[in-house]
Amino acid sequence: MTPNPFLGVFFHWLGGLASGSFYVPYKGVRKWSWETYWLVGGFFSWIICPWFLASLLTKNLFGVLGQQEFTTLWWTYFFGAMWGFGGLTFGLTMRYLGMSLGMGVALGYCAAFGTLVPPVAKVFMPGLKSVESSIVEIARTTAGQVILTGVVVCLIGIGVAALAGLTKEREMPEAEKKKAIAEFNFTKGLLVATFSGIMSACFSFALTAGNPIGEASRAAGTDAIWSGLPKLVVVLAGGFTTNFIWCVMLNIKNRSGYQYFASHIRPEHAHHGGTNSGEATPAQTAGAQVFATDLKIPVLGNYLFSALAGTCWYFQFFFYSMGEVKMGKYNFASWTLHMASIIIFSTMWGWIFHEWKGSSKKAHLLIAGGIATLILSTCIIGAGAGWTNLMAFLKSL
Length: 397
What we know:
The chain is mainly alpha-helical. It contains 15 helices and no strands.
């Protein structure tokens, strides 16, 4: 397939739109604990959608996976499981920082580490099967230097977004913070977002480790644009393992496992609901009266909203796999493009849900500047990837 980095950027933006929007349906969930709706959505994200679409759009899925070396499957699965820790804390990031700032900080870290980990690893693990160059090889080329500059610009955007959040935390009235984000806590959210972003970057390493799966899929007759789907099956199986274990542990600890099948919630969980759910506050449990209507669980609606959220989340990597094959030699930059586009679209949703209402003009200018910087970083990286293909085209004339 002929590289087309501009089309690759477009696919990554579609993936960013899907990921930046996936948390919105969860706002429609009612009377379920976080661990309940997170796991239901996860079944669609990590099991149902990957297997269904890979089976539908690729050739001989089971044969391709069965012919892989154990080490390929293991490292692809392992780093998927490590990403799972980032996925778990990512949900907490949304609860403490909201959609715009939470995704901005967590995915900013994820963008930088996820872009650089695979090529850096090639320096220390030269036997790693990958179509990507090492960081040393990348830095020696003009296009590589441009792309690395884009990564630095992305990090600057992270810093500006974090400063915007700190300004917001200091200036917004407490009541306004809680109105938009019930559990807003900048310090706790920043720590969780940092851990989440670094661990989530393991997804990029998992995709790199799974490159032989994509190559085998192409050899089996799969169109190159769909060849990344089989490795997502393995990566997301690892992520599912981590999330499944943790959510079941929380179901046991919080005695919330009954919620999957119950039509009514227990009184101690009556104040759970949507993305602002959590343990009921003392004021809620001590002073609030619980009516029968407060205990009814909208079961069908909860499953539909969770399924929609999970499916939407999966489509970020559906489009990612398409964009990656279009980026040419410097496809490692796909990660930064993808993450930066998620931050951009999640901030859009943050503005729509008034998460920045009540903050000062300074905070608004900072978050706008951070987003503009991230957009600039995607343009720089796209230009760097496009430069290589342009030079190759000119040499062929």
